[in-house]
Design brief:
This is Probable nicotinate-nucleotide adenylyltransferase. By secondary structure, the chain is of the alpha/beta class. The protein is about 35% helix and about 15% strand. The protein has nine helices and seven strands. The radius of gyration is 16 Å and the shape is globular. Bound molecules: adenosine-5'-triphosphate and nicotinate mononucleotide (NCN).
C-alpha cells in the first residue's frame, strides 16, 4: 500500500513540543499517513560540542512522539549516513512504494545551499518548509534569490504534493511556536541525564521492526 510519509530530520537535542506540533500540522496540511523523525547522528554543519549522546536524543524524541502518527527512526545511525542526500537516496530505494516529502523549518532554508548535493536532494523528493517565528526574513531571502525559487508551489495545493515531480517546494504557514532546543538547553543543560537510564519503549517500535525487515 502506498503511504504518504513526511520526513523531519533533526538533531533533537532535545526534541520539543514545536517538533511535535509542526509535524502534526504539516501532516494535516499535506495529508500524511505518518511523519518519521530521523534523529541525526550528527548534523555536519553543527559543532559536536554540546551535542547530547545519541541515545538520549532518540529517547527524548520518542517521548515527544508518543500516541501520534509520528515514528522515531534511528535509520541514519543504522545506515551510517549523516548527509540528507545520502539518506534519501537509500530510503527511496528501500521503500519504493512510499511517497516521501522532506519537512524542514524556515531557519534551515537559509543554509540549504550548503548541504551536500542539495540540488540532487531537491530533485529526489518534494520539500515542505514550515514557518518558524523569527526566521521569516532568512527564508524569504532564500526563497526569492535561490535556485529553488522557480520550483515554489502554492500552499493552497499542498495536499496534491504526490502529483508533483521534484524539485518542488511549498511554504506552509503553520501556527507559530517559538520553542527551540537552544533555549531548552540553556534552561536545563543536563536534560539528557533524565534519559540516561531508560532509552527503550515509546513510539517508533513499528518503524524499527520495518527497518529490521528492510535492512536484514
Ligand atoms: N519552533 C519551531 N518552528 C518551526 N520549525 C522548527 C522549530 N523548532 C525546530 N524546527 C525545525 O525542526 C527541525 C529539527 O530541528 P532541531 O532538532 O535542530 O531543533 P532546534 O530547536 O532548531 O534546535 P537548536 O536550537 O539546537 O538549533 C529543523 O528543520 C528545524 O528547522
Ligand atoms: O546533508 C547535509 O549536508 C546537511 C547539512 C545540515 C543539516 N542537514 C540535516 O538537516 C536536518 C536538520 O538538522 P538540525 O541539526 O538543524 O536539526 C537534519 O536531518 C540534518 O541531518 C543535512
Amino acid at each position: 500500500m502506498t503511504r504518504r510519509i513526511g520526513l523531519l530530520g533533526g538533531s533533537f537535542n532535545p526534541a520539543h513540543r514545536a517538533h511535535r506540533a509542526m509535524s502534526l500540522a504539516a501532516a494535516a496540511a499535506l495529508g500524511l499517513d505518518e511523519v518519521w523523525w530521523l534523529v541525526s547522528p550528527g548534523n555536519p554543519l553543527k559543532p559536536k560540542a554540546g551535542m547530547a549522546p545519541y541515545a538520549a536524543r532518540l529517547a527524548s524524541a520518542r517521548q515527544l512522539a508518543r500516541r501520534s502518527i509520528i515514528r522515531v527512526s534511528d535509520i541514519e545511525q543504522r545506515l551510517g549516513t549523516v548527509y540528507t542526500a545520502d539518506t534519501l537516496a537509500k530510503l527511496t530505494r528501500r521503500y519504493p512504494r512510499h511517497r516521501f516529502i522532506w519537512l524542514m523549518g524556515e531557519d534551515t532554508v537559509a543554509q540549504f545551499h550548503q548541504w551536500k548535493n542539495w540540488r540532487q536532494l531537491a530533485a529526489t523528493v518534494p520539500i515542505a518548509v514550515l514557518s518558524r517565528p523569527g526566521y521569516d526574513d532568512e527564508a524569504r531571502t532564500a526563497r526569492v534569490s535561490g535556485w529553488l525559487r522557480r520550483f515554489v508551489r502554492p500552499g493552497a495545493q499542498a495536499r496534491d504534493w504526490t502529483r508533483w515531480s521534484a524539485p518542488a517546494i511549498v511554504f506552509l504557514g503553520l501556527p507559530p511556536d517559538r520553542t527551540s532546543a537552544t533555549q531548552l538547553r540553556a534552561a536545563d543543560p543536563f536534560w539528557h541525564q533524565r534519559f540516561a537510564r531508560n532509552t527503550n519503549g515509546g513510539s517508533g517500535v513499528t518503524l524499527f521492526a520495518e527497518h529490521r525487515r528492510h535492512l536484514g
